[in-house]
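WARN retry 2 of 3 for item q-0093 after timeout on previous attempt; input resubmitted unchanged.
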Amino acid sequence: MSGHSKWSSIKHQKGVADVKRGQLFTKLAREIIVAVREGGSNPEANFRLRLAVQKARDSNMPLDNIERAIKKGSGTAEGAALVEMILEGYGPNGAAILVHALTDNRNRTIQEIRNVFSRGGGSLGESGSVAWLFDSKGLIRTETNNLNTDELTLQAIDAGAEDVSIEKGYAEIFTRPDQLEMVKRALERGKIPVASAELAMIPKTPLQLEEKAALQTLKLLHKLEELDEIQSVSSNVDFSDAILEEFQAQV
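OK item q-0093 returned
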């Protein structure tokens, strides 16, 4: 898994998501609503909902907001019907990009995403054009301050993780999708502080880009994530720490 795109990890680690708190809560609420409609309002019986609620709590979303979203999803509160979409496209120099959207207006959202791709030097692709370049994995992040990374790696592998990537100040632990919760709980029992746990699309073969193209791609990813209906964006580009720091200085 090493060498995959670190963009979302860096944002989580350094807090550079650059979205307004209200917009973030809207995205989190939409995920909760769709999770409830897909698997019911009982978190104990709905893994996707448990993940969504935990992510909302990690982001300091008020409990009232979480409960309101669950009620909307279960039909006990009014709310627009949401459609879930995975769109695929290409960034500058052939970067593969997956966009996960939840929207109440499919055509509007597709057009907005198409416009961002076009302005960013990329293009929206057909269904299946880049999805095959990614694997669905469980992704657990933990800060490594004051932790022995060798021991962390052993604990994670013993708990059922497939791979561990040690980065500067944090670690990424990869699991099979159906093993994510089991590994997370095992780490927590082992006193490993889990910063986040989610299902993520991980590129099979990371792409290396020269500096200009890498910065163009980061700008495109950033613009996509600024759209209200976008839940997450995945790329197959392996961004170096230097490129990420340069981009952060620009935004």
